[in-house]
Amino acid sequence: MFLGQYQHSLDDKGRLTIPSAFRDALGEGAFISRGFDRNIMVMTAAYFQQVYERLTAMSITEQNARQLRRLLLASAFQVDVDKAGRVLLPQNLRQYLNLENDAVLVGQGEYFEIWTPTEWATQMAAIDDAEANAQRFSALNLGG
After folding, report:
1. Structural domains in the chain?
2. Cβ-contact 43, 110 below 8 angstroms
3. Quick one: CA dihedral 129, 130, 131, 132, positive or negative?
4. pLDDT at 144
5. pTM of this structure
């Protein structure tokens, strides 16, 4: 399970060190893809397979299904964790995020996200709005 947040720097070749807490969960490799909020999603092979199966079960005659497939699959890459615990982020995904030096890795349970520090700060500002959260999350019935 991917939990917590970490900040790491990319090296000059575009490799990002994966925190040891996340590295063990990735096992033999991972799949990365554009996320939904100007971020990158990093998924285990097993979780990516689940996502893939759900995507391919959707009708290609549905426009939203086609767009979701394009969003996730056209930008997806299989990556390996090297002996130093790094993954090479493809150039097009680094450009999509405007990711140059520092990155924030954020656990999301089944996967983790990669953000620029600026974009993550924007997300945190929205998350820190207690009044908005009360309205936003009330329908989720988390209280039981």
Report:
1. 5-116 (3.40.1550.20)
2. yes
3. positive
4. 57
5. 0.89
Instruction: Please write the tens of the pLDDT for every residue from 3-21.
Output: 999 999 999 999 999 999 8
Among 108, 112, 94, CA closest to 43: 112
Give the pLDDT confidence of 19-54 residue by residue, as tens digits.
Answer: 998 998 887 679 999 999 999 999 999 999 999 999
Nearest CA to 94 among 30, 27, 12? 12
Q: How many CB atoms lie within 10 A of CB 115?
A: 25
Distance, in Å, from the CA atom of 96 to the CA atom of 45, rounded to the nearest integer, reads: 23
Cα 33 to chain centroid distance, Å, stands at: 7
**Helix 63-73 × helix 45-57 angle, to 10°:** 160
DSSP code for 100: -
- Please say whether the beta carbons of 45 and 30 come within 8 A: yes
48 closest CA partner among 104, 110, 1: 110
Placement of tokens 């497939």 in the chain: 69
